[in-house]
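Margin note from the TA: students keep mixing up input and output lines. Inputs are the sequences; the output is the structure of the whole complex. Example:
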Amino acid sequence: MYSIEDIDKIRRHLDKVGRADRMYLPHRRSHEALQILSVMNFKGGSGKTTTSAHLAQYLALRGYRVLALDLDPQASLSALFGNQPELDVGENETVYGAIRYDDEQRPLKEVIRETYIPGLHIVPGNLELMEFEHDTPRALMKRKPGEALFFARLSNVIDNVEGDYDIVVIDCPPQLGYLTLSALTAATSVLVTVHPQMLDVMSMNQFLAMVADLLREVQAAGGDVNFSWLRYLITRFEPADGPQNQMVGYLRSIFGAHVLNHPMLKTTAVSDAGITNQTLYEIERGQFNRSTYDRALDSMDSVNGEIESLIKKAWGRAA
Ligand SMILES: Nc1ncnc2c1ncn2[C@@H]1O[C@H](COP(=O)(O)OP(=O)(O)OP(=O)(O)O)[C@@H](O)[C@H]1O
Ligand SMILES: [Mg+2]
């Protein structure tokens, strides 16, 4: 068995001495742009945080340099990564510190933390993020000509750490406020998580209509809203559930290839791991019935592999 630190060392070593035509470290090259992936939907519990956490860890385990950004005041992503929002994250230690409008503003680099997975960093969240929702209307009233619009603030601060990462994964709050709008503007691609049930899908339609309106406004104000890709991810899917299958069929008929091929299966392995703030990639296989764990991991890897292919495609690499 090799630890993730060993694998990281081996990759780095081979990158120096290995064959020139092999890619031992998948880091992006100078002509490949930083990928900023926003995971969103204003329906609570649609699986945004679970998706963000597993995707960020999967990509880091594959050798990419990943920044996970918790934009949700509830800060469940931070908790999953071992940063308890009320205990471990102090004042001015979230991304709010970097995008706030007053003199307390600090560089994003200062609020980035390491995790125990090499190559994976996190900007934790806590309730302080709510301040941005309150400050922004005031700032809009006082705006001087030429000043960056609120929705560009997040992309601007991410630009300052651009060279350190290959992929940024942003976990959005379950509402369409200024934070989510900032994530939408910063994003190079968007993942909309959807639980295949009637009420969830109806709420998602509302979400999409509002996003479309807002994006038109952002564009009119000079913001950039060109995504490399946008995909719907079916979450907490139960293959034996008839109505869910019908709903998935309906989503696929409407959104076609914009729905990821692989759904994320509902499994006790994910929810049980979550109880102790762990992901499938962290929890011991021995804690579960083997087939339960293997099926869960297989489903998660398939979803993440499909997203990795989209990222590679955006870089112009062979998927
Ligand atoms: N594939 C899955 N199998 C089983 N349980 C899951 C799965 N995905 C998510 N869950 C559980 O569903 C709940 C909601 O998931 P999650 O926190 O990821 O949603 P969310 O969209 O981030 O929620 P919020 O809108 O509150 O931020 C969690 O308790 C999580 O453990
Ligand atoms: Mg969440």
